[in-house]
Automatic annotation (TrEMBL):
Lineage, broadest ranks: Bacteria, Bacillati, Actinomycetota, Actinomycetes, Kitasatosporales
Signal peptide start-end: none
Family: Belongs to the DoxX family.
Protein name listed in UniProt: DoxX family membrane protein
InterPro entries cross-referenced by the UniProt entry: DoxX, DoxX-like_oxidoreductase
């Protein structure tokens, strides 16, 4: 047995922390665990923020977060797991972008942090304390990294782009008031 180094332990901690948070977040969507809305409540929210149909969007996001997070934590199929989680977080960041960067004001800071960490793990690899290593990296080959990110990017661009188009179309015809009410009094 080879000796594990600090890098392996650090990657394990990153995978467990990031993967665990993502998996928990996803189970809120899928099952209503940890105070989440489940598919019904999350589907209504997704619909309200422009991801239509809401229940399908909630299912896709929940599976990407739960599945990607669980696989990241285990260090299994790391390129696909990290890319899937990063794609889900890009979709979440799109919702929060109008609120600025910081999470305190409802911004995209949290989603960006989780997404970038997941992407970094997909690129770096899981380390030796992982199922990928135990299985001889059968589902963690170098070519899988660009393939996973290309597939995820394509899907994310389509979904977020459709949402953006839908929101713009809904806003057409709306007109901001010409004058603030306080000046009319």
């Amino acid at each position: 047995m080879s000796r594990y180094d600090r890098r392996d332990l650090g990657l394990l901690l990153l995978r467990l922390g990031t993967g665990g948070v993502l998996a928990a977040h996803g189970t809120q969507k899928l099952f209503g665990w940890f105070g989440g809305g489940g598919l019904e409540g999350t589907g209504q929210f997704m619909e309200a923020v422009g991801y239509v149909p809401g229940k399908v969007s909630a299912t896709a996001a929940g599976l990407a977060e739960t599945g990607g997070g669980t696989l990241l934590a285990l260090g299994l199929a790391t390129p696909a797991a990290g890319a899937a989680a990063a794609g889900a977080m890009a979709g979440a960041a799109a919702v929060h972008t109008p609120n600025g960067f910081f999470n305190q004001g409802g911004g995209y800071e949290y989603a960006a942090t989780l997404g970038l960490t997941a992407a970094g793990l997909a690129v770096t690899g899981p380390g030796r304390l992982s199922l990928d290593h135990l299985l001889g990296h059968a589902v963690n080959r170098s070519w899988m990294i660009p393939a996973a990110f290309a597939a995820t990017a394509a899907g994310t661009v389509l979904v977020v782009g459709a949402r953006t188009k839908r929101l713009r179309k809904a806003k057409e015809g709306e007109q901001d008031p010409l004058f603030d009410e306080e000046y009319l009094e």
